[in-house]
Amino acid sequence: MREAFILVGVLCSLAGIAQAKPVTDGAGRQVSIPVKVERVYAAGPPASMLVFAIAPDKLIGWTRAFRPDEAAFIAPKYGALPELGRLTGRGNTANVEVLLRERTDLVVDAGSTAETYVSLANRVQQQTGIPYLLLDGRLDAVPDSLRVLGKALGEEERGSMLAEYVENALRDIKGRVSRTRPEERPRVYYGRGPAGLQTGLAGSINVELLEYLGARNVAAETKGGLANVSLEQVLAWNPEVILTTDPNFYAAVWKDERWQNVAAVRAKRVHLAPHLPFGWFDFPPGANRILGLYWAGLLLYPGAFPADLRPRIVEFHRLFYHQAPTAAQLEALLGEPGVLPK
Amino acid sequence: MLKAERLAFGFPGRTVGEGIDFALAPGEVLCLLGPNGGGKTTLIRTLLGLLATHAGVIRLNERALQEHSRKEIAQLIGYVPQAHAGAFAYSVNDMVLMGRTAHMGLFASPSAADRDAAGRAIETLGIAHLAGRPFTEISGGERQLALVARALAQEPRVLVMDEPTSSLDFGNQVRVLGRVRRLAAQGIAVLMSSHQPDHALQCADRALLLGEGRAIALGAPRDVVNPESLKHLYGVDVRIVETTGGVHTCLPDYALRQ
Amino acid sequence: MSRGAAAYFGALLALCALVALAFAIGRFPVSTGDLVGAFGAKLLGLTHPLPENVETVIFKVRGPRVLAALIVGAALAAAGTAYQGMFRNPLVSPDLLGVATGAALGAVLGIFLSRDVWTIQAFAFAGGLAAVALVYWIGSSVPRHDPLLALVLTGIVIGTLLGSGIALLKYLADPYNQLPAITYWLLGSLASINPSDLGAVALLALAGLAPMLLLRWRMNLLALPDDEARALGVDTRRLRLVVIAAATLMTAAAVAVSGIIGWIGLIIPHAARLLIGPNFGRLLPLAMLLGAAFLLAVDTLCRTIASIEVPPGVLTAMLGTPFFLWLFAASRKGW
């Protein structure tokens, strides 16, 4: 009798093993993914974007609910998916029990692949028994991430197609940048926060776009992540272009007498990054920044980048958000003060 | 100068004592005698207006105490608490100067006249050599003298002293009590609490015996400080003995057994 | 020269030297000639051709920041001095009743709601005042207990409560955008000082300072046990209320523009007391001079040693500790 049970058990696990496929994720981890994946939990916005792009019907929820202006760009049935909270990374609001309650088949995370996040991934995987894919969030790694994810979700074709789109876009952008002369590459300051005095240092993910575009980040003399700088330092740097993600700073900079003599302000080259439905420039650090590359590229190298961003936006939204923006939405997006040169 | 009429006193919600009647005249020394926990300090705090009365009236200079402002009370009554160390190292001079606050305006700083008054008080107490020293670095006895000087700097008509010799060695006790008699001779009314019967017998004109919040007796020390009343207050046996010059002293029974 | 006079003289000298130095150095290169020329033009109307932006840097960026450092340093030191005297405890800081924590909660809330700089500062100021008002109201509603102890305990409890509010907001904040802004605000900085901020802070600090100066003699009596002070003619309850209100006004104004800069309100009054004794009338001005000089020195370092800003709280602790230990070792006993 006991032997019969053991036999059945062994056969079942063999069957289970036969029904899984091994996938190597962005951190080099070998993860065994079941063949049928129906319910996917995305641990943060960059991952949400990737999963939503490839298999929107398999996404079980978003890490935070959409605001009305953001939700307008997503089809209602997807926009209304439940808010499940973030799992790892900075700020952890989801309960691991939520994963189990939601009968998750696969957890996907995209971002840093450093040791901390690898060990977090392993811990959650061990604790819940749910396979956990950790993908690399850097721009250059997006195509690979899309392919790996496509394989894991059983949507290899779609994953491949999206990966090719991104590869082409990145190649296109690199090409345009390489055709600009070094002296045409402006000195850029990226100002975050309401006072515009927070910036990204050399190598930080916050200014990845600037570095990709070959722009000269004035704060690049120091390596690191985010840092505060003084206004005096910004005046000493005297950037030619200022990019920001804070509408309060954008509104204030024109009225503040201390900023008036900065080259960028005088030349009216201060710009506010679009943020719908996901931010284009710095955060969340996901595939959404492809549009940001075209936007920033246009602002930094006006001659080298297509002046009309609308076709790109429509194409990207169709592919990644499954909904093309209406003409009115495009106008609102691009017409927000500061997004495009006057 | 300072009168208590059918006074009941205590803490908010708890009466500690009642039925206190006495009148303190200028130049008179009244010793408040009683055991610890008997209510001496609470009575003193009530007489100073620091605690509300529960019944009866306190009259300062013929007016009810509550009709005086804090400032007026401070100008008439000098309070000498038991000496303490204090958290900050004010100089003796500054400590005594604090006594002048009652005579200063709200936003004023000590004037030359105030400094003179403080200086005189320091001289009177014989501690001029300590004037510049930090209060925290002098001995307990010297601190007590400084606190008496502070009370004197108020130029009060009444001195209320709470066990002024508690932490003092014998020499300092003698010095402080000697001062008390000399101050009374100058016309200041003195109310002094103590738990030593000898203080009542040798320094005071009258004694008020306070036991469990009630006045056991009030009168000339040689009349009221006797073995019966002391047995009632302290539960010990003593003998009152008369010595040279008509002065009495209290001898506990262990001193009598040979 | 008496010890007190020497201390004053030394502090004043140090302050002047630091102000001159602070104007002369910074991330934006300004030559001495240009510096003198700019001042000459401003004060005496002399003409002097200046390279672009130098005038802006000197008078609109560096100048306000130097003044802000002086005001904030003096305000924190004054508030700390007043509290240490009032609570009879040399280990007390201006945040004892929760003003800095309340201000922090206000600012963090402002950042969480994505407000502009002015609104964040206004929230911070209001938060600081509200926190202390709450603490005072609760602390003085328990009549049976020692009033100071009641205030201290209430301050600790409410401070902890407000701190948990801050922690909650940090948890809920967008980790990419709001959380870094919150973190930097809590670390403190004078980098975003605006000339218009300066006017408001100076006015509020002065409004808090005036009662302290006027009542400087009476404040000494708060060092005595309550009974003694009252017996000496002081209305201790009212005096304490005035001192708390004044100190809170100054500290809330300072924290609203500079974030949390610790150590100054705790250590500077000590240092001043070791030099000149506890008499408030002499202690307060010296503490303010030392506080202003110290924060100016720290802030000048914060903005010049690297191209990125160093949080002043880090340097105040690093520089303040050895300075204080040296003073302590060289002094007589007693505070």
Order of helices and strands of chain C: HHHHHHHHHHHHHH
The strand order across the widest sheet of chain A is 8-6-10-11
Task: Kindly report how far apart the N and C termini of chain A lie.
Answer: 82 Å
Label the CATH architecture of the largest domain in chain A. 3-Layer(aba) Sandwich
- Count of discrete domains of chain A: 2
Could you state the CATH homologous superfamily of the largest domain in chain A? Nitrogenase molybdenum iron protein domain
Largest sheet of chain C: none
Largest interface: A-C, 41 and 40 residues
Report helical residue fraction of chain A.
40-55%
Tally of strands of chain C: 0
Describe this structure in words.
The complex is a heterotrimer of chains A (about 350), B (about 260) and C (about 325). Helices cover about 45% and strands about 15% of the residues of chain A. Chain A is α/β, with parallel strands linked by helices and about 350 residues long. Chain A has 2 domains: about 20-175, Rossmann fold (3-Layer(aba) Sandwich); about 180-335, Nitrogenase molybdenum iron protein domain (Rossmann fold, 3-Layer(aba) Sandwich). In chain A, helix 6 (about 115-130) links the parallel strand 4 (about 105-110) and strand 5 (about 130-135). In chain A, helix 8 (about 155-180) packs parallel to helix 13 (about 290-300). The mean pLDDT of chain A is about 90. Chain B is an alpha/beta fold and about 260 residues long. A 6-stranded mixed sheet of chain B has the order 6-7-8-3-9-10, with helices on both faces. In chain B, helix 4 (about 110-125) packs across helix 5 (about 140-155). Chain C is globular. With about 325 residues, chain C is mainly α. The longest helix of chain C is centred in the N-terminal third of the chain and has 33 residues, at about 55-85. Chain C contains 14 helices and no strands.
Describe this protein with a few key phrases.
heterotrimer; A: 342 residues; alpha/beta; Rossmann fold; four-stranded parallel sheet; three-stranded parallel sheet; 11 strands; 43% helix; C: 335 residues; mainly alpha; ABC transporter involved in vitamin B12 uptake, BtuC
Present the secondary structure layout:
The complex is a heterotrimer of chains A (342), B (258) and C (335).
Chain A: H1 2-18, E1 20-24, E2 30-34, E3 40-42, H2 45-54, H3 68-71, H4 76-79, H5 96-101, E4 106-111, H6 115-128, E5 132-136, H7 142-153, H8 156-178, E6 187-191, E7 198-200, H9 208-212, E8 216-217, E9 226-228, H10 231-237, E10 241-244, H11 247-253, H12 263-266, E11 270-272, H13 289-300, H14 310-321, H15 327-335
Parallel strand pairs in A: 3-4, 4-5, 6-8, 6-10, 10-11
Antiparallel strand pairs in A: 1-2, 7-9
Chain B: E1 2-11, E2 14-24, E3 29-33, H1 40-47, E4 55-60, E5 63-64, H2 70-76, E6 77-80, H3 92-97, H4 112-124, H5 140-153, E7 158-162, H6 170-185, E8 189-194, H7 197-203, E9 206-211, E10 214-219, H8 221-224, H9 227-234, E11 238-242, E12 248-252, H10 253-256
Parallel strand pairs in B: 3-8, 3-9, 6-7, 7-8
Antiparallel strand pairs in B: 1-2, 1-4, 4-5, 9-10, 11-12
Chain C: H1 3-24, H2 32-44, H3 54-86, H4 99-112, H5 117-139, H6 147-172, H7 178-187, H8 195-214, H9 216-220, H10 226-231, H11 236-258, H12 264-276, H13 280-304, H14 312-329
